UniProtKB/TrEMBL annotation:
This is Cytochrome c oxidase assembly protein COX16 homolog, mitochondrial. GO terms for cellular component: mitochondrial inner membrane. InterPro entries: Cyt_c_Oxase_assmbl_COX16. Signal peptide: none annotated. It comes from Dissostichus mawsoni (Antarctic cod). Belongs to the COX16 family. PANTHER family: CYTOCHROME C OXIDASE ASSEMBLY PROTEIN COX16 HOMOLOG, MITOCHONDRIAL, MITOCHONDRIAL OUTER MEMBRANE PROTEIN 25. It is a single-pass membrane protein. The keyword Membrane applies. GO terms for biological process: mitochondrial respiratory chain complex IV assembly. The keyword Mitochondrion applies. It comes from the Eukaryota. Keywords: Membrane, Mitochondrion, Mitochondrion inner membrane, Transmembrane, Transmembrane helix.
Length: 106
């Protein structure tokens, strides 16, 4: 039979059991804290109207058919694809170059 001194010298009991209790207890503690976090978010759940429109399909102010009609009315024959500036390019200078090229073309 183990005595109290023998239990205190046992490394498994001295280091393993507290570690095991810390890991298991920590998981339960984290579960409670995360539950509190999600409950508080649910209580004060107020979305931005534009974000709510994206989330809630029934409340969307723009309907796909309306957007299609707008695009259909646009003149696509005169449309040109213009590349935007790269991050390492000076945007103001690049835009001026693009505008001068567009003015030169008939």
């Amino acid at each position: 039979m183990f005595t109290l001194k023998a239990l205190q010298k046992n490394k498994t009991i001295k280091y393993g059991v507290p570690m095991l209790l810390l890991v298991v207890g920590g998981s339960f503690g984290l579960r409670e804290f995360t539950q509190i976090r999600y409950d508080s978010q649910r209580i004060r759940k107020k979305l931005d109207p534009s974000l709510e429109a994206k989330v809630n399909v029934e409340r969307q102010p723009v309907i796909l058919e309306e957007e299609y009609e707008k695009i259909k009315k646009m003149n696509m024959e005169e449309w040109r694809n213009i590349r935007g500036p790269r991050p390492w390019e000076d945007s103001r200078e690049y835009q001026d170059q693009q505008r001068s090229r567009l003015d030169e073309k008939p």
